[in-house]
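Structure tokens please, single chain.
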Amino acid sequence: MNQKKKNHGTKGQTSFLLLHFLQGALIGLGAVLPGISGGVLSVVFGVYQPVMELLSHPRSAMKRYCRMLIPLILGGGFGFVVVARILGFLLTRYPDPSVCLFVGLIGGMLPSLFREAGKKGRKKSDLLMTVVCFGMILILLTLLQIIQVTIAPSFGWYLFCGFCIALSVIAPGMSFSTLLMPLGLYTPLVDGIGRLDMAVLIPAGIGALLTVLLLARAVTVLMEHHYAMVFHGIVGIVMAATLVIIPFRSFTVSTFSCVNNLLCLAVGIVAALLLDQFNQKIEVPED
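Here you go.
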């Protein structure tokens, strides 16, 4: 009997570590993929609070969430660097199907995000915040697409890229790609990360570190006092950012293109729903 309990406990620990490595990889992936926010994924997976505590109070966070954060960090680094290389290839060779897959992933995660937003209650003012944020972000991103501003990459602009990356983790829903794509900075950033180019990684890392030091604690306080309103606003931001990146024109190019895009959308939705189910089934072991 004791041996069975021991085996069961070992399996539980392995599942726990594997789950958080996978979640970290997806959060790292979300920090790179167009339209997806690493912060949103950390919220959906229920690890946002430990991540924010790590950014604002690293020493106490490691003592409290050590077994969760270590596989999460390792997975995040793996997802961020490895997926950036793969993403550079996919976006170059298969841009429209790749974006449709990403859109499906986001769409499949919206139910769990909305569930998370209402975890502490839901008021009419919170739903109104969703509508307001959706409208504002949709207008802003549409204008950026119309203007089509392009900027030459430089040390200063890679600092800005680092700021956007950190912001996408600290403020769920703020996908950095939606800011960098219209400026022409997204592709060189992702390509540089995938190639481990120090000319990209160093300024981006500095920008991300400065952003964490300046904003992490302020965002944590905001979440503690206005949880429902902030997260309902995030739902609106995510929906608007997702709508903007859908490659509508590619659906009309040919029947094959339309079917291929729809298939990628479906795969993304199913994968996100299965991941959410798996996330809910795994029991977190007691510290």
